[in-house]
Amino acid sequence: MRNVIKPFASHSLFSHHFNSLRTLSSNNKPNPPSLYQNITNIIFSPEDGFPSSEDGSEGVRQIAPKSSRSSNAKRTHVEASDSEDVDRAFDSSQGVRQIGPKSSCFLNSKPTVSETSSKDVSPIVQRITEIVRLETARIGMERRLDELGLSCGPDVVEMVLKRCFKVGHLALRFFNWVKLKPEYCHTTETYNAMIYIAGEAQEFYLVEKLIAEMDDELCPKDIETWTILISHYGKAGRIGKALLTFEAMRKSGCEPDRGAYKAILRALCYVRKPELATEFYQEMASKNMVVDVGLYQMLMSCFARSDNKQAVLSLRNDMIKCGQVSENDAYSLALKCFCSFGKLKDAQEVFKEMKRKSLVGSDAYDILLKGLCREGKVDEAIEMIEYMKNESSVSSRTYGFLIHGFLSKGDIGKAIDVLHRVREIGCLPTISSYTEIIQHLFSSNQYETACELYEEMLENSIRPDIVVTTAMVAGHVHHGQVSKAWLPNPSKPSSFLKEMSDLDINATDGIFGLVINSLTGNGYFEKAEEAEKIRRSFKVDNLENEPISQPVDHLSPEEHEISSCPVARVKDFSDDDVREVCRILSSSEEWNSTREQLARRMISFTPNMVDAILRRCQRHSRAALQFFSWIGKQTNYAHTTETYNMAIKLAGSAKDFKHMRYLYQEMKRKGLSAAANTWTIMIAQYGQAGLTELALKTFKEMKSEGYSPDGSTFKYLIVFLCGQKGRKIEEAMKIFQEMNQAGYMPDKETVGIYLSSLCESGKLVDARRTIISLCKRGFETQLAYSMLIKSLCRAGRLEEALLSTSELAKLGCRMDRYVYGSIIHAMLRGSRIDEALNKVEEMKMVGVPLTTQIQTSLVVHFCKEKEIEKAVETFKTMRETGCEPTVITYSALIRGFMNAGMVSDAWDIFRRMKLKGPLPDFETYSMFMTCLCKGGKSEDALLLIREMLDSGIIPSAVNFRTVFHGLNREGKTELAQSVLQTKWLLKRERMFLN
């Protein structure tokens, strides 16, 4: 049996993070366990390493076991910096260290690496890695591994996983494959490797699943596990989870080491929490742990950014006391931090103190000079250079800062003058100075001058690097001189395409278009035709962009959220740059300030990067659309159809349909061809808002302009025409017929929604005709009739559904679990509980396993009838039979508790969802909000609106209206007004303003 963990105690560091977590009331007299406590014992039993009801509950997920479960394996700390090297990917800077001896496990009773330390396993690891990484068809990997017949101990598995961390979805398949082998068990080290891979991909649902699996398998977590979790939560900006994990580590008896402290400090600095960072730093120092220079610099930067001068100076003094660096280096580091964040007054005070201590060297001058130029204080920089001539030598690097300062002010002429002055004094200008000036010349349409400056650079024997070469290529292309970009051989691009194809490097449509246009313009028609053939045959194999956890697509006609049409993209940007831009867009309300910050960053934007930024800024779509407008006017950048599509979607999702249409017209004016996807996005945005008339009008407009609808266009139009809001069943039937005539086979989601709409509208004959027609075209018969029965049940046509089940055998179909599920759910909705339970028994007799759907239906029914004890018992049965509760299951329990007046228990279940999963979705929030308002708890419902926004879920107008009316009914008019203000601010954040 595992040790039971006590719930989190309140900690001074985290007190304000736990204010919102409701705790069960307690007094001196023992109370019988509540229904919530009974459920807690079912979900988080002591065997699973979670607190029992006797220990109390704070609604906080316990991730850790006690100290008896900490790993005893010896750890070898390996410092590494090259994240591209697979073996070095698990470096201490990210809180992950290489681990030494592992436990010995066996696969097929063959000797493993653990048994024979002298045996070189690298050939085995290499062979397995090749099979895993070369799996391109998503089938066959497991079979080939079985045929290989090699033994795989945990050491081998760990090494293979580390070599596959860039193809995480394949690593997961290998991880799951080896887990099923007889007598094999994963170790802490193999789990750590897989958790690291999932964390790098920011697939935190998978991370949580792996952690739960470790608990189920009695696999201990060690300091590496905790540090990986803290590090990745921190890098994703999920500081609450990082803090909870750190506290859980303490409670487990696992003492934080230097790597764990470094991970939490990195996370706190990333989200700008200097106060908390101070406490952790002081705690770390009190334990006499070594603080390296990198950590000092990170903390200094955090404090400098937050205008905490004294904290920066205090850290500087600590560095000197501990002897990590010299006094000169410590002062220089403080100076650099102040300059980096524009705190020039503080920087100049540090500089003066350095002069008094005779610590000023050329590096200190350069740091301050660079800071002055970055902030546009060029005059002060010139004065400093004049002073430097007397005090120390002035290098070409020094003048490079001055050149950057003039360029940031837009004064290219003075920048060129400084460049020539450098040559006059006998110095050779740096290549970065040439590059900056060339880029600005191209941006200001001084094409000839830029080319002349490049030639001058070559004459001075300065060898071009990749940056200046890229700048020249971009400049030639932007000014219509594509052939010059390929000098000396304009036909060279075709050979590059072949080389890319041979190396399996993805070429985008934009690259192909550029090459073909260049070849055609220079008269290489045969090579252009050859490039077009490569384009048609080229297979984009973008394994590294695959999600790790692939969705299971079973035959159940489940409903899925409708998403926008995905576009395959090649990554040509830095995630750090994207995060920084998104931070700027979300943190500033004034566009002028935002624009200045963006300009200072000197980021090289690409269409793919812009697309990624827009995708992450749905809540702040106003700033994102202003950014889209601004970047489109930059001379070295041009929007693509894909970036316009994303901007159109962003405007539409904010219901800013006027600007959505403006973007489409602007796109046409710029000569970009609107694909079917563009029209589909506009149709979907109208449909999502219930404006089906406008969606239909746009569909007709699309065809009148000569665009042919594709399968996605038909799908989304049908889905929204069949929706409850704005339903137009006759039009949906016409579009469905048109889709079939165009040769498109509807997917199961479309068919399910369409059939449900027909049945709810009483068009049962049409529903049956649709099924017959689809089956003739190749749609699977079993699936088709399963969906028909489900649609009849949803429409309340239980008798017709039962009649249809009697016809299944004649059609060669069977009563599967999905058919049973639909029938049982309909019976429960009709309060025919005895018949439903008889069907459940019938399933057991014929050997059809109970599904999560069926047991959730029972939970929903019992909660609706306020039979909470039976709901809890059914929930317990789900766990015992291996059926994992879903969001709907937990939501039903919350609704049941609320209807029974058990508000605190409902809150505890909700908090458990947020911390353990599955995460609450929009429907859960909306339902809970409505229940709270009905129960006179509208102030709590207001908190849910804020939580929704923090979770990235946009509340609907109905959500705001529900809470507003609830607060008014309770006489809380001021809070009600704050709801309207929040709604207005949210709308303002999302609507485009010129």
From TrEMBL:
InterPro entries: PPR_rpt (IPR002885), TPR-like_helical_dom_sf (IPR011990). The keyword DNA damage does not apply. SUPFAM superfamilies: HCP-like (SSF81901). Pfam families: PPR (PF01535), PPR_2 (PF13041). The keyword Transit peptide applies. Residues 76-90 have a biased composition (Basic and acidic residues). PPR repeats lie at residues 222-256, 257-291, 327-357, 361-395, 430-464, 640-674, 675-709, 710-746, 781-815, 816-850, 851-885, 886-920, 921-955. Residues 46-118 are annotated as: Disordered. Keywords: Repeat, Transit peptide. Residues 105-118 have a biased composition (Polar residues). NCBIfam families: PPR. PANTHER family: OS03G0856100 PROTEIN (PTHR47447), PENTACOTRIPEPTIDE-REPEAT REGION OF PRORP DOMAIN-CONTAINING PROTEIN (PTHR47447:SF28). Belongs to the PPR family. P subfamily. This is Pentatricopeptide repeat-containing protein At5g06400, mitochondrial. It comes from Ananas comosus var. bracteatus.
